[in-house]
TrEMBL record, chain A:
It comes from the Bacteria. Keywords: Amino-acid biosynthesis, Branched-chain amino acid biosynthesis, Transferase. Pathway: Amino-acid biosynthesis; L-isoleucine biosynthesis; L-isoleucine from 2-oxobutanoate: step 1/4; Amino-acid biosynthesis; L-valine biosynthesis; L-valine from pyruvate: step 1/4. PROSITE patterns: ACT. This is Acetolactate synthase small subunit. Catalyzes the conversion of 2 pyruvate molecules into acetolactate in the first common step of the biosynthetic pathway of the branched-amino acids such as leucine, isoleucine, and valine. It comes from Albidovulum salinarum. The keyword Transferase applies. The gene is ilvN. Its EC number is 2.2.1.6. Gene3D superfamilies: 3.30.70.260, ACT-like. Chain A, domain 2. The keyword Hydrolase does not apply. It is an enzyme of class 2 (transferase).
């Protein structure tokens, strides 16, 4: 947050909106959606994105409050500024949705994703894969004589970078969880 | 006291009984429905009581449109009860219609028993899956303990915030099982509480704009009607006190009276010249409960280029969806207008008198175009003439109008005047042919002594004509005023203007003899084709104590003007006497 306490971007309903409403630039936003964990709620959220032609880059969901039956859905989406505003407004009017937070504009946040990489090979390549995994702080969670499974957490960019490096070294399979994100601070 | 209440309100009963009890406790007096295997327990309960009237329809789509007519004309939610599978799928069009026009409905569907869900059981359909995108919210109730509460929640969601249709899917075993009934006040409060009060700082900003605007306009929509009679009253007060012109969308007609001094007519694709030009040239546009639909805006880039735009809407997702506005006020139109009037009065009721006088001078100039002029004939009934006569002969009466979809709908909007809200029921957002006839029955059920007229096209009317039996059975004296051009007139008009006059499948072949059809159902049938006989025929229709099918044979090739072709700005409108050749270019042709 800036010294003036004006949130960067904020919403277009705000007087402090600093973005051009007609901008055609695509932006990527991470939204945290708090919902009642009731039957069909995920279908409702996904249906909204597909029905209205919005993009989903990644989506994670899990119950975060077992007593209150609340789930947290983290969606990474891309669109122009007005489309992002629409997505938030459309999410906000779904009945089981309690809150929509745009972590990208509501001040700093942390984002993490977990991924598993299976890399197979022998000799030089195998050694190189292990060396790079170490640099990236990836753990070996399974190994055979001709393969490793690495576990890595980090930002999606870090995971992308790791994937690029593993590709020539015998990458055979990837599983990614999608992003989990929280706002920083108390 | 509270304990006592709890004890009397919470009772053990079957799910089926709960349904009826919950409807009673919600003040429901009529249900539109059709039975089937999966709702038999509920129908058994309906049989054993007299508080709720059940209107047996002839097709579930009819039930939903009737409930829409009922809801739109009373302000109360309409209630529908249908069976699983085909019963539910037949209701889909009506629910989509209600969603687009923000009509509060509670639709109850039967479902196969919980232990059969997912087995492709007889008459099983994934009703909540199918209706998820065409309801405001829906529920599958798997436990009788949760049933009463869910129904109360359903009424809450349907009527709060921006109204809309909701659906509760009730498996048959849940109807048979016994559980605890909870009354509306014991139901857990829903977190769904849309904000109705507008932000005062923003309302004050709007007042500032109102005080100085030179060319202001109120652009009102269905939201004013939905907000309740109070909102219409406040709109009238504000518009008359400021002296600002008022235009309205199709859905908002009647919120401000057609006889009001600020009224400049409907806007949009088939709106009045003066209304559309005023929208284009204004310097302050005050949108009250309308949603910048594409029928209204025309080409977005050229939409009202010189104006500051304010938008009052209860649904935040309507704001900045299509048109970026300068001032957004989220809230209920009625509440916002109340505060707006207070602030405006307290600051000395200022307006820019000089600017306004000039603005009205300009509007009067536009009115001289007389954009609704048509060439009348003494040989054939012009549809516009038929509506002018209908208007003249029914004006002073307690009158409700519904319509089907097509040219006749637009002419009805242009030529009939509405003095009060909730008197005009039409399918705006979805444009559902087949809406008007069942809707007219729903209106008549709610207002048994009123004059209810469905202005119809012959093609639309045939789409739900099975409801003739319903009208006969329940003695609803609805008047079906069919402007019969033997054409899918609106389609034919587009083909003429856009598709080189190739009239592909746009005529009505093999029409029935409407008079005989009327008689077959015990109705009165009237046919009229000579303009000289029209007044007498209309009077015969009005005065007949029962349903009437009026076959008004009109000019077959009349086009509906003014018209802003899709993709054109407001100031490039086609008028009746204009050459229409090449008026619509390829770019516009892809739009609907
Ligand atoms: C269910 C449905 N199907 C198709 C259409 C497309 N459509 C719009 S108007 C129209 C013609 C309506 O003909 P009619 O009811 O005779 O009215 P007219 O335009 O002739 O007055 C059609 C087919 C529609 N709106 N709804
Ligand atoms: Mg027709």
């Amino acid at each position: 947050m800036s010294a003036l306490k004006i949130k960067k971007g904020s919403t277009s309903h705000s007087a402090y909106d600093l973005r051009d409403p007609f901008a055609e630039v695509m932006e990527t936003h991470t939204l945290a959606v708090l919902v009642d964990n009731e039957a069909g709620v995920l279908a409702r959220v996904i249906g909204l994105f597909s029905g209205r032609g919005y993009n989903i880059e990644s989506l994670t969901v899990a119950e975060v409050d077992h007593e209150g039956h609340r789930s947290r859905i983290t969606v990474v989406t891309t669109g122009t500024a007005p489309v992002i505003e629409q997505i938030k407004a459309q999410l906000g009017r779904l009945v089981p949705v309690h809150d929509v937070h745009d972590l990208t504009v509501e001040g700093p946040s942390v984002e993490r994703e977990l991924a598993l990489f299976k890399v197979s090979g022998a000799g030089e390549k195998r050694v190189e894969a292990l060396r790079l995994a170490d640099i990236f702080r990836a753990n070996v969670v399974d190994s055979t004589l001709e393969s490793f499974v690495f576990e890595i957490t980090g930002t999606p960019e870090k995971i992308d970078a790791f994937a690029e490096l593993m590709r020539p070294l015998g990458l055979v399979d990837v599983a990614r969880t999608g992003v989990a994100a929280l706002a920083r601070g108390a | 006291m509270k304990m006592m209440e709890m004890r009397t309100m919470s009772r053990q009963m079957t799910g089926a009984k709960m349904v009826v009890q919950a409807l009673k406790d919600q003040g429901v007096d009529v249900v539109f429905g059709y039975p089937g295997g999966a709702v038999l327990p509920i129908y058994d309960e309906i049989f054993q009581q007299n508080d709720i009237r059940h209107i047996l329809v002839r097709h579930e789509q009819g039930a939903v449109h009737m409930a829409e007519g009922y809801a739109r004309s009373t302000g109360k939610p309409g209630v529908v009860l249908v069976t699983s599978g085909p019963g539910a799928t037949n209701a889909v069009t009506g629910m989509t219609d209600a969603l687009l026009d923000s009509i509060p409905l509670v639709v109850l569907t039967g479902q196969v028993p919980t232990f059969m869900i997912g087995t492709d059981g007889f008459q099983e359909a994934d009703t909540v899956g199918i209706t998820r995108p065409c309801t405001k919210h829906n529920w599958l109730v798997k436990d009788t303990e949760k049933l009463s509460e869910t129904i109360h929640q359903a009424f809450h969601v349907a009527t709060r915030g921006r109204p809309g249709p909701v659906l509760v899917d009730i498996p048959k075993d849940v109807q048979f099982a016994t559980g605890t009934y909870r009354g509306p006040r014991e139901a857990v409060a829903s977190h769904y509480q849309p904000k109705v009060k507008g932000d005062l700082a923003k309302i004050t900003e709007l007042v500032e704009l109102i005080e100085t605007a030179e060319r202001p306009i109120f652009y009102t929509g269905g939201g004013v009607v939905n907000s309740g009679p109070g909102a219409s009253q406040l709109l009238r007060e504000l518009a008359d006190a400021t002296g600002f012109p008022v235009t309205s969308t199709l859905m908002g007609l009647g919120a401000y009276p057609a006889s009001g001094k600020g009224w400049i007519g409907m806007l949009g694709m088939h709106g009045l010249y003066e209304a559309n030009l005023a929208m284009h040239d204004c310097d302050l546009m005050i949108n009250l409960g309308a949603r910048f639909d594409d029928r209204i805006t025309g080409r977005i880039a050229d939409f009202s280029p010189k104006s500051k735009k304010a938008h009052v809407d209860i649904d935040p997702s309507s704001i900045n969806k299509v048109i970026h506005v300068d001032l957004a006020i989220t809230g209920d139109v009625g509440h916002v207008l109340e505060d707006l009037l207070k602030v405006w009065k307290s600051r000395g009721r200022k307006v820019n008198k000089e600017g306004l006088a000039k603005w009205w001078g300009q509007i009067e100039q536009w009115k001289l175009k007389k954009c609704l002029t048509y060439k009348n004939s003494d040989k054939v009934i012009k549809p516009q003439y038929a509506l002018e006569r209908l208007e003249a002969l029914t004006k002073g009466r307690d009158r409700y109008i519904t319509t089907e979809v097509g040219q006749h709908q637009m002419w009805a909007a242009q030529f009939l005047g509405f003095e009060a809200p909730n008197r005009w029921m039409t399918s705006g957002g979805l444009g559902t042919m087949g809406y008007g006839f069942p809707a007219s029955i729903g209106v008549q059920i709610a207002h048994p002594d009123a004059l209810v007229i469905n202005v119809a096209g012959e093609a639309s009317w045939l789409m739900n004509m099975q409801e003739m039996g319903t009208a006969t059975q329940f003695r609803t004296p609805v008047k079906q005023f069919i402007l019969n051009n033997e054409r899918l007139g609106m389609v034919r008009q587009w083909q003429q203007l856009l598709h080189g006059e190739r009239y592909s499948h746009s005529w009505s072949e093999s029409l029935p003899d409407f008079v005989k059809l009327a008689e077959a159902f015990g109705w009165k049938g009237i046919q009229c084709k000579d303009p000289k006989d029209l007044d007498d025929a209309i009077m015969a229709m009005i005065e007949y104590d029962g349903p009437v099918l009026f076959d008004c044979l009109v000019e077959k090739h009349e086009n509906c003007f003014p018209m802003i072709p899709s993709g054109k700005p407001h100031n490039e409108m086609l008028l009746g006497d204009a050459s229409t050749e090449g008026a619509i270019q390829a770019g516009g042709a892809v739009l609907v």
